[in-house]
Every structure is written in C-alpha cells, then in structure tokens.
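4.2 Preliminary Data

To establish feasibility before requesting continued support, the project team ran the inverse folding procedure on a target of 99 residues. The structure was first converted into the token representation described in Section 3, and no sequence information of any kind was made available to the design step. The complete token record follows.
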C-alpha cells in the first residue's frame, strides 16, 4: 500500500513530463526517471511500472520515437565477461605444475 506521502500523479502528468524532458534531450528510460526525480528536487520518484507503460503509450500515439541499441552498460558487461574468460585461460596456462 502507498503512504499518504506518495500520491498518484493526475492523468497525463507523467506523459507531459516525459515529453518536456525528451524535447530537451534524448534519454533512455532510467535516465528519464532520474531526470524527473532530480528536477523535482526528489519530490517525484517515477517507478518502472509507471514509466515504461507511459513510454509505450507515447510510442503508440507516435509522439516519441524509440531507438534500440546496446547500452554502454551492456557493452561493458560483454567486454568484462570476455576479458575474464581470456584471463582465466591465461591463468590456467601459466599455473605451476599443470601441463
């Protein structure tokens, strides 16, 4: 259950904030939520369960466009995983007493 402190936004408020933010700069969902929180002096905290459906509605109405690509975080995870695999291979080859 929600606290009295946490109140639902009036209908359309989230969509207006998203459009206003995206008018200034292109952002992904997480960055949108952080921007809204920061800009509101932490008065508003947009949860994923509200943000992503709102973004889907805006996409459906063709008010925003989406671009799908691998985020830098995913790329970093991939590169770290690859590096760890190479490091493990090198460590096995160099391990003393093994041939």
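Position-by-position output of the design step:
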């Amino acid at each position: 259950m929600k606290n009295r402190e946490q109140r639902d936004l009036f209908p359309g408020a989230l969509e207006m904030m998203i459009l206003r933010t995206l008018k200034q700069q292109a952002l992904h969902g997480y960055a949108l939520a952080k921007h809204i929180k920061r800009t509101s002096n932490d008065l508003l905290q947009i949860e994923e369960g509200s943000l992503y459906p709102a973004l889907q509605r805006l996409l459906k109405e063709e008010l925003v466009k989406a671009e799908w690509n691998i985020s830098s975080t995913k790329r970093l995870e991939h590169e770290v995983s690859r590096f760890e695999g190479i490091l493990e291979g090198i460590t096995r080859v160099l391990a003393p007493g093994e041939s």
